[in-house]
Amino acid sequence: MIYFISIVTIAMTRGLKREISDLVSMAADERMSESIVINKAGRIVVMLSLGMMGAGLGQHVVKPQRVEEKPKIDGVLNEVEWGRAATISNLGQVEPREGAKPSERTEVRLMRTDEALYLGVTCFDGTPAGVLARDRRRDSTGSGDDRLRIVLDPFARGTEGYFFGIAAGGSLGDGIVRAGNRPEMEWDCIWQAKTRVTADGWVAEVEIPFRSISFEPDQEGWGFNIERVIRRREEKLRWASATRQKSLYALEGAGRITGMRELKTGLGLDVRPTAVARWREDENGSVTTELEPSMDLFYRITPSLTATWTWQTDFANTEVDERVVNTTRFPIFFPEKRSFFLEDARYFRFGRIRRSPLPFHSRTIGLSGDGERVPIEMGAKLTGKIGKWNLGVLGVDLEDKGSLLADDVFAGRVTYDLFGESTVGAIVTDGDPRGNGSARTYGLDFHLKDSRFQGQEAKTGELIGWYMQTENEGVEDYGWGLTAIYPNNPIYMRVGLQRVGEDLDPAMGFVRRPGIYEFTSFFSYETEPAGSRWNEIDFDFSAGFDADLDWEILSEEYEFDVTFERKGGGEIQFGIEHEWERFLEDFEISDGVVVPVGDYRSTKLFGGIETPSSWEWGGELEASAGEYLGGQRQEVELNVFWKPGPDWATRISAANAWHQLPGGDFHTLVVNSAVQWTPTSNLLLTGDVQYDNVSEEVGLNGRVRWTVKPGSDVYFVVNQSLAKVGAERRYESVGREAVAKVGWTWRF
Question: What is the phi-psi region of residue 598: left when phi exceeds 0, alpha when psi lies from -120 to 50, beta otherwise?
């Protein structure tokens, strides 16, 4: 019956406009009898009625109940207000079988005060002992637990929104969703949620303050969707767009929550003072101590526009980068991890460029050209929306440091919303955080998106283009790029071409390889074999090349792989990769091992196996072997985790690579390990050990984070570096540091 109604609704939607047009013409024609006109009008009424039924099925809409008293966030839905809240219970199964009846019932209750949105979610489970609830960590994806995933699109454009993840064990994660991609988890939001395992399953109670997110005050309806994962069955249930054709993060397929006007954000002022005490000992045994205050201010000029100011910014609580050994000719991209730059970082993104060339990468601010840390004296940002304009302005004042004089750096970014889902924009940067010279970068970009360019099939198509130009000490150059994307299921396609000038050098950005044309393409096909042990099978193919600016090919790369995803979680992958590369100059890949000028062809086979994340212990094993730069290379990477309960989690990874080249043999080993203790959801203790056999250094990091309340934290961090010194090559300390940091947020 449902399928019949759906077919009828589609047909009527196509013909409704024509029917109304005919009715208007008939009514104006005096020759038409009254009975004929009435009959035609009756047909339209029926079509509208069925059409509304279809809209209710396809476009999910709910209005959260407005209440005066906010509930206590404790994971117990015992307040009277929850009994009056709007309720969602029609979640549909997406995986392992789209359209199948969910194995368990889910009940989502929604209500709001003038200050916050509240969700009370009851995840019923006939086997409550089977609920996986072993992760308490803040800023964790909770991938091994039963979990809920929520997306909000306050501007209802289907292009960008917020992500909130809640695991049954109590871990919370938040991020920014852009263009249907997985959330960017670097964003940090002041919100709260509590979970509780019960005799009927598990419960989550959630509070999202309106002042913690950006929204348009006159936007009555917000995009909203929720997804539940029953981990032991690898079962995924979703409210709106319960289909594999759309992911949860394809915001154009979200439902709607209405009645979102007349919201309050108070004065919109957050004050966050911080005190930092630091003790440091260098490799010579010299000891220094520091006690420094700092301050961050956040002011919401409007609910969609925020001004941020920071003074004597300290990043003591920033997580360390995972150690890597670079055996390529090109620099490695490291992501930004500092909170000041991560907040509202999306407003500075340009051209949907993945890694290179970036006109602006905030990681460059605070580091000199030789990698020395440069203190930030003061910084200010203005980010958000003004009507259809999206704005990002950043200014930073750097302190004197060695040969680097005090300097100011600036970045400005603006985009304009077009056609509901598209944008055009510009970017400019001024200043060089690496040195004392002058540098400017200019850029223009566009992003055209249509989530219904194939009509009723509701497929999405995207076209992205950009142009940038740099001026450094009188040297100018330019770059451009064009990318077309078909981001759908079961077929995903992407093809792109970009030019990177030889002297293109964004001083506040990142360029992996200058002086090239770069072509990339990717094709993926996903199938769901019926009656099989596999949830899905993915076939991926990629091809690309780099050419110099005279179109002489410098490198080519082709890869084909197949991934089998088990119904109970975990996957198996195998594939083949072929590369051709031309070296125009000798390259020292390792100490004493030189790859001479020439052409090199390499073919390797690779494979891997990954255990389900729901297991108490498991991991991932990847291996490859084949030709490499005129010789051979074998690689093995092992990642192991152990999660005995909600208190403890341990992981260790080891990446080994053996190279047998005409110029000599060498071996690289990188080890990263961590242990985490989470006695409560507000207290996290971590210990990291890192080692590589190239530098032969051991890095030790200990970190304690106590979240007194959302936005207010106490940190204690210890770092130590050990290296082989002296003729006997014994490990000795080459630097130690202990840092205590207290930060508190007051909201007005």
Answer: left
Q: Where are the domains of the chain?
A: 2-58, 61-257
pLDDT < 70: residue spans in the chain: 1-59, 314-323, 368-372, 401-406, 453-458
Q: Is the dihedral of CA 394, 395, 400, 403 positive or negative?
A: positive
pTM for the full predicted model:
0.79
Quote the distance between the C-alpha of residue 650 and its chain's center: 24
The three state secondary structure string of 637-700 is EEEEEECCCCCEEEEEEEEEEEEEECCEEEEEEEEEEEEEEEEECCEEEEEEEEEECCCCEEEE
Residues 6+ apart with CB under 8 A from 174: 139, 162, 163, 164, 165, 183, 185, 187, 188, 189, 191
**DSSP letters of 146-172?**
-EEEEEEETT-SSSEEEEEEEETTS-E
Distance from C-alpha of 383 to C-alpha of 512, rounded to nearest angstrom: 28
The β-bridge partners of 358 are 510
Q: Give the whole-angstrom CA distance, residue 393 versus residue 309.
A: 12
pLDDT in tens, 555-586: 999 999 999 998 878 899 999 999 999 999 99
Name the pairing type of β-strands 201-209 and 439-450. Answer: unpaired
Partner residues linked to 653 by β-bridges = 639, 672
For domain 61-257, is the CATH number 3.30.70.100?
no
54 — phi, psi (to 5°)? -65, -40
Report DSSP letters for 394-421, one per residue.
EEEEEPPBTTBPPEEEEEEEEEEEETTT
CA distances from 222 to 46, 149, 154, 324, 561 (A): 29, 16, 5, 42, 39
**Residue carrying structure tokens 């080519």:** 556
Encoding tokens for residue 306? 């925020």
| Core vs surface per residue 466-504: b (16+ CB within 10 A) or e | bbbbbbbeeeebebbbbbbbbbbbeebebbbebbbbeeb
C-alpha span between 566 and 614 (Å, rounded): 13
Q: CB-side exposure of 202: number of CA atoms within 13 Å?
A: 26
What is the CB-side half-sphere exposure of residue 550 using CA atoms within 13 A? 1
Instruction: Return the beta strands (E) in 143-238 as ranges.
Output: 147-153, 160-167, 172-178, 192-198, 201-209, 222-230, 235-238
Which amino acid is residue 736, in one-letter code? R
DSSP state of 312: S
Q: How many Å is the maximal CA-CA distance in the chain? A: 110
User: Tokens representing 310?
Assistant: 């920071």
The closest of 646, 686, 684, 691 to 668, measured between CA atoms, is 691
Question: What pLDDT does residue 711 have?
Answer: 87
pLDDT at 159: 85
- For residue range 387-407, list pLDDT tens digits in order: 899 999 999 988 776 555 557
- For position 354, what pLDDT does the model report? 82
* Cα(12)–Cα(47) distance, integer angstroms: 6
